[in-house]
Structures are given as C-alpha cells and as structure tokens.
Fold this sequence. Notes:
CATH topology of the largest domain: Porin
Largest sheet: 12 strands, antiparallel
Strand order of the largest sheet: 1-2-4-5-6-3-9-12-11-10-8-7
Order of helices and strands: HEEHEEEEHHEHEHHEEEE
Shape: globular
Amino acid sequence: MKESLKALLDLLDLEQIENDIFRGRTSDERRQRVFGGQVAAQALVAAGRTVPVNRPAERSSSVEWRGAGAGGRSVHSLHAYFIRPGDPLVPIVYTVDRVRDGRSFTTRRVVAVQHGKAIFTLSASFQIVEDGPAHQAAMPDAPAPETLPDGLTRMTPLFGEVAAREFVTRRPFDIRHATPLSWEAAKDPALVTSESKVWLRVDGELPDDPLLHVCLMTYASDMTLLDTVLLNHGLTWGDKQTMGASLDHAMWFHRPFRADDWLLYYQDTPFAGGARGLARGQVFTRSGELVVSVMQEGLIRVTGD
Length: 305
C-alpha cells in the first residue's frame, strides 16, 4: 500500500472524544488551508459512526468502521457547505446531531469546528436496502485506464520530473486523465473543453467496509471537479491570475462500489458566472454501472495578468 494512502486512512480514523463528538487530524502538507475533500470525508466518517447498529432508536458508542452493515443502512446522499478555510496546523472537531432515526432512513448533521468557529457543515442520509424501479445514464466512451499514461508520465513534461514525482507521490490515488489537463489547455487553446474524463482508484488494496469506500470517493470527488470549470476557459490553478475555493458539495451514492477498483469520473460544467462555477460529475464502474453522482459550486476569481 502506498504511504500516502496509509496516511489518508489514518486521517479518516477519527478519535471519539465524547458521545457524538469526534476529532480528526489534519495532514502535515504545507497547504494554505485544509483540502476540502478531507473535511468532507472525515465528516462523513463521523456521521456514519453514529448510525445505529440494531434498531433505529438505539444509540451506539462504537467507533469501528461501519457502512451498509450498520443496521443495513448505507449512506445514499450528502449535502455540504464550506464555510471557512480549514487551518492545516490544528485538529478539527466534528459534532454530530442525530436528527432522525426512522424505520427506513437515518439523518445526521455534522458541524466541523476549529478555533471555536464552524468551518464546514454536512447533512447525510442513510437508508435501508430496498427495491424499486431502476434506470441509469449511459457510461460515456473512454479509453481503458491501462492504455493511458500514469500521473508521473503526464505531469513530467509540464512541471519537470522532480516536481511531478513529488506531486504524484503525495496523492493516495492513481489518477489517469483521458482528456486534457487544465495546464495543457492553458498552453494550447485547441485543447479547451467543457468536459473531463478521469480514471481513478486508490493506490492499494482496501478492507471490504462499504463506508470506507464511500468516504474515500468523497475525498477524491473534490480533487478534479472544479478543474473542469477552468478547463473550459483555458485557465489553471497556479497561473497567478486564477484563485478559487469550494463553496458547496453534494453527492448521491446509487450502488455499492470499491474505491480500489478503477472508476471513471466523468465531469462537465453547465454554468459559470458571477465569480462562481458549477461542475457536475458521474462515477461509473468499469462494467458501466453508475454508482455516484456529484455536484459542486466553487468560487472562481480571475484577477488578470
């Protein structure tokens, strides 16, 4: 298992400090703020660990990984707002409000706090397994991940081998782009496009717990989504004129999946304006099953040359 993946799994193993109160470490990377995907994933871990094991009315203090096995309830959606930048130098405290434990659905609200102030809120809903009508969008065409260059090969011409290797080593995911990178489109206007296709999987084997796979996909969903907005305008992070941040994030989990298998993350951007950009994503298994849908709005400011 890649060291960066081990570090991420450690970050997601929250410490329970009181009933419905958890503490999560921040990464030791030298960032200006905590990565939004990390906060969202940790908050979902906190919510999932309060889902009753047996009957909905029961409360549990157990903190082991629990997903679909938690009373047969798996997370089917989350809605989150990024309120303040997270401080990467101090832990984050997550407080969970047990909004409802019903016969079919369990609802949780999580507030992430640093320095006495809320930096992030998340609402998540868990559902028992039920049958019903079924349909899905078709999986878009994309080359197989094995035919695409890995991150180091793709990044080296752009940033040099040393910087590219450092960038790829820090990532706990193997990410392979089937469409242009924003840095490539910024150099060549012919590559500008409004959609992005990315194959991804964690760089190592995982245990079977469904909640862990969902939380890792929550983390990964924030890694490339807003890049799609920049790709549509020939902009890129680090071009000294573009700045941005995630504002809100929503996900719907349709079917079980494994984050250590290849997943196609298809992303596009239906709108940008008012210093905000909207991006949406669909995640498919290699067999073509739609397993996750994502929406995110982000702040996109261009200051000029």
